[in-house]
């Protein structure tokens, strides 16, 4: 996933990808529960966190995944020490427009088999969500760390959220599902008319 993000960043200088990306972003944000401005701000936050981690420590950069929804940052991955976990949380909290940091980093070694299993789980859950007619899958971000699935995003209803977590829990290899999802009616959501 990180390679795709870096490759995407390198392509930003070319005109064609920007045009295609703008069209795709417009189509996606139409279905999203957050505005295009909020989606853009979240993408900027994610880039700033990645840049800050890369500047601090390239190893941390490679170990940490971030999910950002309306300024709420969820940090995921496995780091080497408790000090690294704390440092990443502090870096994320210091980024402009971050409203909340949920630090789900674990202190553990993740081998290539663990990463492969987690990637398979992510892919399978994402495919199932995409195929579910009663779920707006673009509103959810799925990230698995050591077989624990973290669901982030915005749910239209409690029923939709329950369906998402049910689908995630039924995938082979999943040990636990943790939801960081807010309902679209939750008062903690950012309301800034962007």
UniProtKB/TrEMBL annotation:
Pfam families: BON. PROSITE patterns: BON, PROKAR_LIPOPROTEIN. Coiled coil: none annotated. Gene3D superfamilies: 3.30.1340.30. Residues 41-109, 117-185 form the BON domain. This is Osmotically-inducible protein OsmY, contains BON domain.
């Amino acid at each position: 996933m990180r390679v795709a993000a870096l490759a995407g960043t390198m392509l930003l200088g070319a005109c064609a990808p920007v045009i295609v990306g703008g069209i795709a972003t417009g189509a996606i944000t139409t279905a999203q529960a957050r505005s295009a401005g909020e989606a853009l701000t979240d993408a900027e936050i994610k880039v700033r966190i990645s840049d800050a981690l890369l500047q601090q420590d390239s190893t941390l950069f490679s170990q940490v995944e971030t999910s950002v929804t309306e300024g709420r940052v969820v940090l995921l991955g496995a780091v080497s020490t408790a000090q690294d976990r704390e440092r990443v949380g502090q870096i994320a909290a210091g980024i402009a427009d971050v409203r909340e940091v949920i630090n789900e980093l674990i202190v553990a070694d993740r081998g290539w088999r663990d990463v492969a299993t987690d990637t398979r789980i992510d892919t399978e859950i994402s495919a199932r969500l995409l195929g579910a007619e009663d779920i707006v899958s673009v509103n959810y971000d799925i990230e698995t760390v050591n077989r624990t699935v973290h669901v982030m995003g915005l749910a239209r209803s409690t029923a939709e959220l329950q369906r998402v977590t049910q689908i995630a829990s039924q995938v082979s290899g999943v040990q636990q599902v943790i939801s960081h999802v807010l309902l679209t009616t939750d008062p903690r959501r950012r309301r800034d008319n962007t």
